[in-house]
Specification:
Number of strands: 9
Distance between the termini: 24 Å
Largest sheet: 9 strands, mixed
Oligomer: single chain
Shape: globular
Radius of gyration: 21 Å
């Protein structure tokens, strides 16, 4: 890095320190309602489900204990998963929380999350919102599967002294219905309502959450990190604000990603594109009948595979290896050159980095990633640069997609340690 860039970063760090100090003073004096943040109230009224009583959003429906580990047990789990356990300081208790939220049309529904808390004496906790990657099976998420990498991730963050809200999103875990894969508004509402539920649950024990949320997520959770951070900055909630953003290996240029899947240029292209096609057809209506999108005999059964009750291995066994074998050429051309509703939907997810965060953004990716190309991180970085955002991009090495998150997580913890 040259001298001018070092001076620029130093100036940014000084400015950030002032912002952090101001945020800390504000948080110390904040209440629990809109009156504590007057500027945020108008934005909160713009939320899709603002007609609902505020108390309904994020209300805890049930809380089920799922684990209680001491620090040594946490470290052993992380090591077994391939995550560096050198930063573990506390034991962890975790619960599966079912909470009230809204669906893609703003109607009342429920969703689930994992809330993990450190076994420490601290009464006010920084909170991490951990946003998971693509999951087709509802039982694979952090709140349900004790062996899931996402549960281990929550253990890592909680063992360093932070509270963790790890939403399952809509239609996964114990949430009813289908998962609206990649739906921007539903991603934000389920994640923010999960934060509200985590705070309500934590306060039952006489503890509270700091308002400055540390947001991180992997793969699908990368764009989700940026969407949730943007919503918090714009005042979607009267209490919570972003504290730092650390997306990992996200498909930030979704148009290019899906086009590459249509051309069989990514690993597991047929599975990724089939999940995308069936989910977006439910949400937006991409095709009239399955035969318009899928070749026979797959057109008769592919939609039923993505019902949330089939594991990825089961789905993969029923699909051909390539998109060319699975999809009609007409549909592949539609993905390569999107128009209409598909183009508009993709545009929303191509621009999740196209804003100026008030907090640092640290992107993590791997040049060895064959599922989500490194070019996606460059796409996000370009948008952040254009908006003058404080950001960094770290390459975690010549590793595959799944290993990327394992390598990045200890670095994210260090990033969050440095955040105010």
């Amino acid at each position: 890095m040259n001298i001018s860039r070092l001076r620029a970063r130093s100036a940014k760090s000084g400015a950030l320190a002032l912002v952090c100090a101001a945020a800390a003073l504000t948080a110390a004096g904040s209440g629990d309602g809109p009156a504590s943040s007057p500027a945020a109230a108008p934005a909160a009224h713009q939320h899709p489900a603002a007609h609902q009583p505020p108390a309904a959003r994020g209300a805890v429906v049930s809380a089920t204990p799922v684990l209680d580990l001491d620090a040594a047990e946490v470290a052993a789990r992380l090591t077994a998963k391939g995550i560096d356990a050198g930063q573990v300081r506390h034991g962890v208790r975790a619960h599966r929380i079912v909470y009230r939220t809204v669906d893609t049309r703003g109607r009342p529904t429920t969703a689930s999350e994992l809330v993990a808390l450190p076994k420490s004496g601290k009464r006010t906790l920084r909170v991490v919102s951990w946003l998971h990657g693509t999951q087709a099976y509802r039982g694979e998420v952090a709140s349900m599967n004790d062996a899931a990498t996402d549960r281990s991730t929550a253990l890592l963050f909680a063992s360093t002294g932070r509270a963790v809200s790890a939403p399952d999103y809509l239609g996964l875990g114990e949430g009813p219905g289908f998962h609206p894969y990649g739906h921007p508004e539903a991603t934000v509402s389920a994640s923010v309502d999960a934060l509200r539920a985590a705070r309500a649950f934590t306060r039952r024990d006489g503890r509270d959450l700091d308002r400055r949320v540390l947001v991180s997520g992997f793969s699908q959770g990368g764009p989700a990190t940026m969407m949730v951070g943007r919503a918090l900055q714009r005042g979607v909630d009267p209490y919570f604000r972003p504290g730092a953003l650390a997306p990992i290996a996200g498909p930030f240029d979704l148009s290019a990603f899906e086009a590459a899947a249509a051309n069989d240029e990514v690993e597991k292209s047929s599975l990724y594109l089939a999940y995308f096609a069936t989910a977006w057809n439910r949400m937006y209506g991409l095709y009239d009948t399955p035969s318009r999108a899928f070749r026979a005999p797959y057109d008769e059964r592919v939609e039923s595979l993505f019902d949330g009750h089939h594991q990825v291995g089961q789905i993969a066994a029923e699909l051909p290896a390539t998109s060319k074998e699975l999809f009609t050429e007409e549909f592949l051309q539609q993905v390569r050159r999107p128009t209409g509703v598909l183009r508009r939907g993709l545009a929303a997810l191509d621009t999740t980095c196209d804003w100026r965060p008030d907090v640092p953004v640290h992107l993590f990716h791997a040049k060895g990633d064959k599922d989500v190309a490194y070019a996606n991180a460059l796409h996000c970085r370009g948008q952040l640069i254009a908006n003058g955002a404080d950001h960094r991009l770290s390459d975690v090495g010549d590793v595959d997609h799944s290993t990327t998150v394992l390598k990045a997580l200890p670095q994210v913890v260090r990033e969050f340690d440095a955040a105010c």
